[in-house]
Design a protein that fits this description.
By secondary structure, the chain is α+β, with helices and mostly antiparallel strands. It contains 4 helices and 3 strands; from the N terminus they run βααββαα. The chain has a single domain, classed as Multidrug-efflux Transporter Regulator, Chain: A, Domain 2 (Orthogonal Bundle). It has a 3-stranded antiparallel β-sheet. It starts with 13 loop residues before the first strand and ends in a 14-residue tail after the last helix.
């Protein structure tokens, strides 16, 4: 089965950070900021390690993929762009449309 974006669905399982990075290629700092701001699903902890529910990540990807215009390219800000945005905006992601993918 595939999503609206054409990407294959993730089975309902737990993802490590390395596995998550394959689907959401952003820096750890960016991910932490999104989680802290409530913009990304929080991890769950087992034995001191963090895991993300694949179904929650798939839903997040689907929601953000649906906001793109047809033919619009996908981009993920680099860590430097993320840091620059934080300096300019004071760290707020409010009103920012996230673009994800393998740009």
């Amino acid at each position: 089965m595939t999503t609206n974006s054409g990407a294959p669905d993730l089975p309902d399982r737990l993802l490590t950070r390395a596995m998550l990075r394959e689907h959401v290629p952003v820096s750890d700092m960016c991910l932490w900021r999104w989680i802290r701001a409530g913009k990304f699903p929080a991890a769950i902890k087992f034995n001191g390690r963090r895991y993300w529910r694949a179904s929650e990540i798939q839903a997040w990807i689907d929601r953000h993929s649906a906001t793109r215009e047809p033919g619009e390219t996908q981009r993920v800000p680099s860590a430097a762009q993320d840091a620059a945005w934080d300096r300019i905006s004071g760290g707020s992601l409010a009103g920012v449309r996230l673009e994800i993918g393998s740009g």
